[in-house]
ABC transporter ATP-binding protein
Amino acid sequence: MEKLVEVKDLWKTFGRSGTLLNKLGNRSQVEAVAGASFEIGTNEIVSVVGESGSGKTTLGKLLVRLLEPTSGEVRFRGKNIFEMRKKEMTSLRRSVQMILQDPYDSLNPLFSIFASVSKPLNIFEKNLSRKEKEDIVSEHLEMMGLKPAEQFMYKLPSELSGGQRQRVSIARAMILKPEFIVADEPVSMLDVSLRAEMLNRMKKLSRDGGSSFLFITHDIASARFMGDRMLIFFRGRIVEQGKTENVIENPKHPYTRLLIESVPVPDPERSKAFLSVDETNGYNEEGYSAKGCRFASRCPFVMDRCRNTEPPVYTISKDHSVSCFLYE
Ligand SMILES: Nc1ncnc2c1ncn2[C@@H]1O[C@H](COP(=O)(O)OP(=O)(O)OP(=O)(O)O)[C@@H](O)[C@H]1O
Ligand code: SF4
Ligand SMILES: [Mg+2]
């Protein structure tokens, strides 16, 4: 498979302004993305799974350059997007799209649905007539189940439900037939009954239209359904990655095993900690613990060395790797 996107040792650190620690002069920081490396092939869907605050949106925004990294590279067709100049960026904006987690962020509240969805056509397909644009917008809205499209096109975002807005955002991202789409929790606001249908449509669009996807979700079942490959994200780190069947059928990292609920828990007291939300959210006084495994405070298999040294990446098989000392 041809490589479309290559991510190499990507880091994004945010300052934690406004926190009590900062007010006291402590320069603590959040490593939202910490050394991510992976690839996405042409026509491939890669799922990212992780809990709230693990850095999924930050990773997605870096991949389409809505954010600049602290360090590292994202190569699109071999070219580092963070070194692209204006002209190359214009062409990148046509080839890559992001469906934002909150559709309010991508739809101008003062513009009709038609105006928002047709905007990319106004920029990149200037020669189309109004009628042609209406037909394309209508086709894409109907593809997302907003039928008949005329009922939605001239409404404002505030007149639609959250789920309908989410479908508009998907239609908008698809309209230029991009090569690469970052879809950030794209169906989270839809009724459960509609979610599978929308995911199916997105998968079909990817297969038929030849788009690659980074599909972001906190739900391992949708990640499994959508992804050819999976990245398991925990506090900014990819703790496990590989072909979907490898990760699901042979999960290695204790966190992945927790996610798919097949973990044998040796000690009931530890299992409580394992399943509970860590109220410190992984921060110590320096922000995320600078050393050691980020999962150590919740891991039932933790060893002394886990608290002092960050585990490196171990290869399990051709398309399966894990960051955990248990697989040394
Ligand atoms: N602009 C920002 N400034 C400061 N900190 C930020 C910023 N954006 C994100 N963060 C922090 O980075 C971490 C990762 O956030 P991010 O939104 O990427 O997580 P997420 O996995 O998408 O979460 P969710 O599932 O809730 O959407 C969080 O601790 C968050 O508070
Ligand atoms: S490195 Fe240690 S603490 Fe981290 S997941 Fe593996 S066993 Fe658990
Ligand atoms: Mg997010």
Remarks:
- The pocket of magnesium ion (ligand 3) is lined by residues 56-57, 101, 184 (CB under 6 Å).
